[in-house]
Amino acid sequence: MTSFETGTFLNRIPFVKIGSGSNPIVVLNGGQAFVRRPTPAHAQRDAKRIARLLPPHRPIYVLGYDSSPPPGYSIHTIVKDVERILRDETGPASVMGISFGGFVAARLAADHPALVKSLILMVSAHRFSSEGRRSVDRQIECAWQGDFEGFLKEFGLVFRRPWLNWLLRLRFRQERERLHETMNDPAIIVRGLHAVAGDDFGKDPSWLQAIQPPTLIVGATRDPFFDVEAMEETARLIAGAQLKLFNGETHMLPIERARDVAKVVRDFL
């Protein structure tokens, strides 16, 4: 039976550990980690979903983010936190960044190559598409205004399968009255999104050339946040990077095609 352990690193970074042993995999979660109030149940559910994509015989650490990010919180702040965790807690690891977490994972690999054995960017790239950039800007505006319903609508029809989008809309309607209970403080959401989506983010991609570990980029051709052009540019600038695109899939590729994605990831690792 797989073991689950929850806790915090640095007294402020929540994590879920799955399994035990050596040769760990560290996973940096997506932007939803900023959005909803963290609960052990949500953290463990996300960890189980992520574990399905990874080899079962290696320990997995799924990291969250600072629950009270300070003013001036930036991607460099997050990278520094993760660097300390790998150096002092887990040891060097394979690192997978999902969505926004890919920004952190790639920067970590560029700045601290000795700590990153291999790098996986899952439905991510070094920058957003134009559509993705506009959507994140609208999310920041809605969060700042406390308009949680508008914020969630920005995720739109994110699944490829229509029935999953119907279930998502139904869930939003059911949770409408409880949004202020389940969503994080607007200031925390805004600081988190600004950290991974600052105004100058993605303008100079030359730092990608400093990434040395073997790299896999897994993406979808209909992803509204990271388009094919962005992923191809990321792969081109990282020496030896492998790019696997799933035709017709969306940003929810790791959920809708979990088994196929897992095969690609496990073959790479």
Automatic annotation (TrEMBL):
Signal peptide: none annotated. SUPFAM superfamilies: alpha/beta-Hydrolases. Pfam families: Abhydrolase_1 (PF00561). GO terms for cellular component: membrane. InterPro entries: AB_hydrolase_1 (IPR000073), AB_hydrolase_fold (IPR029058), AB_hydrolase_sf (IPR050266). Residues 64-257 form the AB hydrolase-1 domain. PANTHER family: HYDROLASE, PUTATIVE (AFU_ORTHOLOGUE AFUA_2G14860)-RELATED, MONOACYLGLYCEROL LIPASE. This is Pimeloyl-ACP methyl ester carboxylesterase. It comes from Microvirga guangxiensis.
